[in-house]
Design a protein that fits this description.
Rossmann fold, 394 residues, 6-stranded parallel beta sheet, Dihydrodipicolinate Reductase, domain 2, single chain
Length: 394
């Protein structure tokens, strides 16, 4: 008989109870909800003044996607009709009074393209309506008007830019970069020329001093003065000498020209203006500007002289010494060519203003820059009115 111990030995070992498998519930993934991508912020801009220069602005805005043109104002209803036909503007966007536009449209910014005499009141009204402001050149009729505009902008906490497009010119950029690289050394003298042999505008109010403030000096001279002043590093003007003459524009003319039959009966501005400006750092600027002058050809440029080198804006070149010889440096390619298409100049200046408002980008042509140029122009006209004696610029 088998013993108990033997039986226990043969008996199979008891298995430990199986552990229950723990089944973890699979995590349920929540559906991913994509956030809607908001459209980039667009600046709501109104155009004040729908005359000639405004069309250059309209062409430039086509290259600036972060702008929405929302309102248009002009005292001439025919221009508003033209805008509706040419640009597809809606009648309810058009106004003959800027007060009505600001009240009903409530734009964020105003681009002022009126005659010079309207710049200041339009800008002040725009600031009061809560708008940032771009104003065409020249900034205003006088330094006092410029100061009023600057003060209104600061009170409203809004940006003020002045339409100086030629500081955005590729040729100006090239010379400024050369200056920054020290190619000219200390600058001493700059000569500005904005000369037409016979180019009196036969449209608009360019011959009326009461609406424009002056003739070629304030209309086309301002372009070359502003880009030259920018190239010089924007020194402070301290004194001016100037002379103005009128001898052709206030008379009828049978001479063939590109713009014949101007309104000589209302012509009260100069044909030719010459100016001399002294700056606080010792630099000198001379300015020649004409609507009509007996010269070889039209000129539009500045030339500069420094201790190490000089330059000419047109044709674009630098003069210096190298390897024991006097040399000319002529860039083979600078683009775009503003003579073929100047829209890029307007696009660049307007883009800088828009970027200033939307992104905080520094303005290259602020109200203070506009005031400095206005003081130069004003000094030349004040000196001319006093027989050409030097007058202080404060």
């Amino acid at each position: 008989m088998a013993t108990k111990a033997a039986a226990e030995k043969k008996a199979p070992a008891k298995k430990a109870p199986a552990k229950k498998a723990t089944v973890k519930a699979a995590a349920v993934k929540k559906p991913t909800v994509k956030k809607a991508v908001s459209a980039p912020k667009k600046l709501r801009v109104a155009i004040i003044g729908c005359g000639g220069i405004s069309h250059a602005h309209m062409a430039a805005y086509k290259q600036i996607p972060d702008v929405e043109l929302v309102g248009f104002c002009d005292v001439n209803p025919e221009r508003l009709v033209e805008y509706q036909t040419k640009y597809g503007v809606k009648p309810e966007q058009c106004f003959e009074k800027w007060g009505d536009l600001f009240k009903k449209i409530k734009p964020e910014a105003a681009d002022i393209c009126t005659p010079n005499g309207i710049h200041s009141p339009a800008a002040v009204a725009a600031f009061a309506a809560g708008c940032h402001v771009m104003v065409e050149k020249p900034m205003a009729m006088s330094p006092a008007e410029c100061e009023t505009m600057i003060a209104a902008g600061k009170k409203a906490g809004k940006l003020l830019a002045v339409g100086f497009q030629h500081r955005y010119n590729s040729k100006t950029d090239y010379l400024v970069k050369a200056r920054d690289e020290g190619k000219f050394g200390k600058l001493m003298f700059v000569k500005c020329q904005a000369l037409r042999r016979r180019g009196i505008p036969n449209w608009g109010v360019f011959g009326r001093k009461d609406l424009q403030g002056g003739g070629p000096m304030i209309d086309i001279g301002v372009h070359v003065v502003e880009m030259a002043h920018y190239f010089m590093g924007s020194p402070k003007p301290v004194a001016a000498t100037g002379n103005c003459w009128t001898y052709l524009g206030d008379k009828p003319s049978s001479v063939m020209s590109m713009w014949p039959n101007w309104d000589f009966k209302t012509y009260t501005v100069e044909d030719l203006a010459i100016g001399h400006i002294r700056f606080d750092n010792g630099m000198i600027m001379q300015i020649e500007s004409s609507f009509a002058a007996h010269i070889d050809k039209d000129e539009w440029k500045f030339v500069a002289m420094g201790e190490k080198g000089g330059c000419d804006w047109d044709p674009l070149q630098i003069f210096t010494d190298d390897a024991g010889a006097m040399v000319h440096i002529k860039p083979d390619y600078v683009a775009p060519d503003w003579n073929k298409d100047w829209t890029y100049l307007f696009a660049r200046k307007l883009q800088n203003w828009v970027d200033g408002v939307l992104k905080g980008t520094p303005l290259r042509s602020s109200g203070e820059e506009g005031l400095a140029i206005q003081k130069i122009l004003d000094g030349i006209y004040r000196s001319a009115a006093e027989g050409g004696k030097e007058v202080p610029i404060k």
